[in-house]
Amino acid sequence: MFAGRKATFIRLAGCNLDCPWCDTKDKMNGFYHTLTIAGIVQQIPKDVSSVVITGGEPTIHSEEKLVGLARMIHRCSSGMFVSLETNGTNRTPAGIWITCSPKPPNYTIHEHCRYDELKYVVDDVFDVSVIPRSVWHSPHPIIVQPESMKPESMKKCYDLVMRYPRLRLGVQLHKVLGVE
To answer: Could you give the CA distance from residue 157 to residue 89 in angstroms, rounded to a whole number?
Structure first.
């Protein structure tokens, strides 16, 4: 929903899944260090209006810490929009915009995973049948995103959006633009 906005990503280490196309696993191996919540917030540039808490998988960290991080961001930067990206396998905190991106093979969404939008990574095995029927009739956006911007995944996403008008196309703009 917020693609194209200037944002800072806070990548929390660790994940409870092992997706073959994970784009953060290699970047985070040995590259992270422990910070306090205040230490994280101090590193947020003042010229952004949006912060995305992601991972790994942020919800493997305590809900208390995630909510505390979001609150401190709001206190230190008035008007800052805070969102969280999750694989949907755990409970999500209240008061934060949640992008839930269920992962194969089961595309499980935990019963206490509250979300504002769904994002499915479209790889060579993805099929729309994994999207729960209830979601098709909900107000939540359903986004399909090509795996690693591969041409065959982009074509598959295009075909899905053309066939199912309820779906939206999502792209990793930083990959299109060559920005990491």
So the answer is: 24
**CA distances from residue 129 to 74, 88, 115, 120, 178 in whole angstroms, order as listed:** 38, 17, 19, 12, 33
Length of the chain: 180
Distance in angstroms (rounded) separating the CA atoms of residues 123 and 132? 18
CA torsion through residues 114, 168, 131, 11, sign: negative
Distance CA 103, CA 14 (A): 16
Describe the strand order of the beta sheet including 167-169 as a list of residue ranges. 8-11, 50-54, 81-86, 97-100, 117-122, 142-146, 167-169
pTM here is 0.90
Distances (CA, A) of 69 to 16, 36, 127: 21, 9, 36
| Every domain of the chain and the residues it spans | 1-115, 119-180
Assigned token pair, 48: 């952004």
For residue range 161-177, list pLDDT tens digits in order.
999 999 999 987 777 77
